[in-house]
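Notes, p. 3: input format for complexes.
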Amino acid sequence: MTYQNILVERHDAVTLITLNRPQALNALNTAVLADLIDAFAAFDADPDQRCAVLTGSGEKAFAAGADIKEMVDKPAADFFLQDFFSGWQRGVVGTRKPWIAAVNGFALGGGCELAMMADFILASDTAKFGQPEIKLGVAPGMGGSQRLTRAVGKAKAMEMCLTGRMMGAEEAERSGLVARIVPAADLLADALKTAATIAAMPPLAAMVNKEMVNLAFESGLAQGIQSERRLFQLLTATEDKREGMTAFVEKRPAVWVGR
Ligand code: CO8
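Output follows (259 residues plus octanoyl-coenzyme A):
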């Protein structure tokens, strides 16, 4: 499948998706969203694909936000009637397999929000994160006020949303927004290698681990612990649990069947 606004490549069991509007710093418009929804659905449905990486083309930006030129003249009623931005939650956050955002420059507004939809973020040393929507007379609309606050805490999230200031890679790592910083030149190779490590894990367990950690983000402690226990118990019924534990006991590498 070829797309107008993204590039999709397969690297063995890893799907690499690249936002490809460098002339607009990979700004996210309706067409980009449609391509991403399709690409993430194809990734999720392909049994040979186990982990994905999302990055931006060009050296400057992961994504500089939702496309301001698409929104500038759009009437409020249309934002409401189209439930503008709701597709991101269904089509991107709803992906069941793990995926990584490799942030290679500006991740602003919707770009920061898209990166935070990933299971984790790897950032280049040139990455800059921000929610500057206030400067446009609006506010985050794709989850930024919620996910940024959960990631970095109220003080930093509030300061960033109210002043529009950007956070560099080091501060983002220190604050818990990103998992790791990688030199810009090595970011893609590192992200693909990390994704390959995840892709080599038993796939059902990878999906369940993702679901469990997301539960900590989205539910209360008691409910999260209860769900974790149930999901753990579910995994004990898989062939991969028997294989993984038997391989450990027999001191040999495990061979996963994905069931
Ligand atoms: N949308 C559309 N085009 C963009 C965007 C964007 N978000 N960002 C950059 N571009 C375009 C520029 O217009 C320019 O195009 P052209 O050459 O045709 O003029 C090109 O990309 C290059 O950009 P610059 O010349 O501005 O590059 P600089 O290096 O000078 O600056 C910046 C880089 C600092 C990243 C700057 O481009 C910038 O500030 N961009 C906008 C960042 C921003 O405000 N993002 C938030 C957008 S709003 C959002 O994401 C969520 C809105 C939620 C609304 C909720 C409603 C329900």
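The first helix runs from residue 30 to 45.
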